[in-house]
């Protein structure tokens, strides 16, 4: 009898111990476990605006070729840019053939033929272009990334030719089946005849007249380090804080690391041990990057996919550039400066999984505190300034942009010309 009582008592003690352990691990009320798995991660508070990848695929600029070496340039969000872009989105492109780039005189085509040129700069994977244009599937073409699309009327054949330029260089793809007529192209070319004339110089375009932009002061706010921790770590309570000598604040959960530079309003998050999905396609990487930002900070305004490229270490880099502007003058990129990081969101991926994430902690809010029209120089005055810079290296691009600075009132966006050089340097013409 005594042995039976002892056994029952020991059993009771074991049950009580198990119940106490359960309550220690799962803190009541609410069944909130101290130990969490990453699959149990609850999405953080919504901070910025969620966006779709389709809204970020658009040309950096649209060049109108009018023949007789006459050109004009339309910028994003301007009336004619939007009109032409919307019409081209509805056209079908099919029957791709591949050619060597050097076999065609492109300078002569741009100078003597009527046409439209869509410039994407850093290149867009074809699979992403297919989200915004009617491009038929083609096994030869789909692995490419496109930097430019040139549409023009032939002089004698009375037909429209369309070429897609590979971002890797060396080859172009012609869409031999296109539902565009010569008259379609002529109607769109007419939009440029009364616009600011540009001159083609060594592959880039210089306005013959000054152009107008709007200098704007925007209201801004700042994401806190705590907000970013809650957004980026699946269990915010176990992060440790480290302060470096250079003023950086580092938060880590032993797997991931968040570096915050309060003096620069900038953050850099790394997750080197993140499990990969096994899919390393450029287009899916970009989509994953957009989804990641949607869930971890969101977007502040309008962005364009500026760069999408693979790395030798099996990683992929995606850079998104912020644009600002309106229909009357157009939207223009905001420059990311070494002295003031703002305007870009950069993500590094490995086989579809985010392993690096950089962005500004500043974000714009509603309202402006300043707005005025500013005239940027053109013609001889601009040519003289460019001539000085050309002594440093070959000029590869020229475009208007916004120079950001932080003032007591908020974010000031000042119009400026930006020159890109063959050595990778960027020069701002204040």
UniProtKB/TrEMBL annotation:
CDD domains with a match to the protein in the record: YycH_N
Regulatory protein YycH domain location: 3-423
InterPro entries reported for this sequence: YycH, YycH/YycI_2
Protein name in the entry: Regulatory protein YycH domain-containing protein
Organism field: Paenibacillus anaericanus
């Amino acid at each position: 009898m005594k042995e039976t009582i002892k056994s029952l008592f020991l059993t009771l003690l074991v049950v009580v111990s198990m119940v106490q352990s359960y309550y220690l691990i799962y803190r009541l009320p609410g069944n909130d476990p101290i130990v969490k798995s990453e699959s149990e991660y609850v999405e953080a508070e919504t901070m910025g605006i969620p966006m779709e990848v389709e809204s970020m695929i658009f040309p950096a600029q649209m060049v109108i070729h009018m023949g007789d070496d006459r050109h004009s340039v339309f910028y994003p969000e301007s009336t004619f840019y939007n009109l032409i872009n919307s019409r081209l989105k509805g056209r079908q492109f099919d029957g791709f053939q591949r050619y060597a780039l050097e076999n065609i005189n492109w300078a002569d085509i741009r100078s003597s033929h009527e046409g439209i040129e869509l410039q994407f700069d850093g290149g867009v994977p074809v699979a992403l272009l297919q989200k915004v244009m009617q491009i038929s599937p083609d096994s030869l073409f789909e692995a490419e990334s496109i930097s430019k699309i040139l549409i023009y009327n032939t002089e004698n054949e009375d037909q429209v030719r369309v070429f897609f330029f590979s971002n890797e260089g060396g080859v172009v793809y012609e869409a031999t089946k296109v539902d565009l007529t010569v008259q379609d192209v002529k109607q769109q070319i007419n939009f440029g005849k009364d616009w600011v004339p540009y001159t083609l110089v060594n592959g880039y375009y210089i306005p013959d007249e000054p152009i107008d932009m709007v200098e704007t002061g925007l209201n801004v706010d700042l994401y806190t380090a705590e907000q970013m921790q809650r957004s980026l770590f699946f269990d915010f309570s176990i992060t440790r804080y480290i302060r470096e000598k250079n003023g950086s604040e580092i938060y880590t959960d032993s797997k991931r690391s968040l570096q915050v530079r309060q003096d620069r309003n900038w953050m850099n998050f790394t997750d080197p041990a993140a499990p990969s999905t096994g899919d390393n396609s450029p287009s899916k990487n970009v989509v994953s990057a957009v989804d990641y930002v949607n869930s971890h900070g969101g977007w502040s305004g309008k962005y364009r996919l500026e760069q999408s490229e693979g790395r030798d270490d099996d990683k992929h880099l995606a850079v998104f550039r912020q644009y600002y502007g309106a229909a009357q003058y157009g939207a223009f990129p905001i420059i990311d400066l070494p002295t003031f990081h703002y305007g870009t969101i950069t993500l590094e991926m490995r086989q579809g999984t985010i392993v690096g994430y950089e962005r500004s902690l500043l974000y714009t809010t509603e309202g402006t505190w300043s707005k005025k029209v500013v005239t940027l120089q053109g013609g001889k005055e601009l040519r003289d300034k460019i001539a000085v810079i050309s002594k440093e290296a070959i000029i590869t691009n020229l475009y208007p942009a916004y120079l950001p600075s932080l003032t007591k009132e908020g974010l000031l966006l000042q119009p400026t010309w930006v020159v890109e050089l063959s050595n990778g340097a960027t020069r701002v013409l204040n």
